[in-house]
Amino acid sequence: MAAAGPDPVVFVHGWNSDGSAWRTMADRFRADGWPAERLDPWTYDTTQSNATTAAQLAEEIQRVLDRTGATKVDIVAHSMGSLSSRYYLKSLHGAAHVDAWVSLAGPNHGTTLAHWCGGASCVEMRPGSDFLLALNDGDETPGAPRYATWASPCDNVVNPQDSVALAGAVNTTTDCLDHSALRADQRVYEEVKTHLR
């Protein structure tokens, strides 16, 4: 029997980060009535392939569902976290377990900045990578989840800036915010909260 309450929110951070990056946003969700046990700022190894991370995300989401009694989660992803969570939705049957998906400054079609970092995950973030070609082949927003993206015109990490938007998603352009500021901006939070409800 599903427990009453909002969908649990699983936060998926970006490259070279960890779950603590979500402190401000998670605090706002708590202040707005989300129980702490339904907020999961997950941490993973950002050097590994996004496909590996997606498999680990599937396990994490199942743990959250088992713990809370919920039937679905919402995903809020920042930057590279958008790629592993999309892989989970598209290739690991994750769409059946997700109600709403959010991408904040996600390099959904790659970023040229990824040519300056190494490791599997960085190679996959490069425009035209095999990983991205497969991820974006066909329907970019598969299944029933409600997809939304937020992109800033002042993002100095995701280049080109139009990499963020997905066909079939609600795509929003923010005020002039830097790449990391999308996680902490009050207006972005309010818009994300509205999307999750």
From TrEMBL:
It comes from Streptomyces finlayi. This is Lipase. The lineage of its organism: Bacteria, Bacillati, Actinomycetota, Actinomycetes, Kitasatosporales. PANTHER family: FASTING INDUCED LIPASE, LIPASE. Pfam families: Lipase_2 (PF01674). Coiled coil: none annotated. It comes from the Bacteria. InterPro entries: AB_hydrolase_fold (IPR029058), Lipase_EstA/Esterase_EstB (IPR002918). GO terms for biological process: lipid catabolic process. GO terms for molecular function: lipase activity. Gene3D superfamilies: alpha/beta hydrolase. Signal peptide: none annotated.
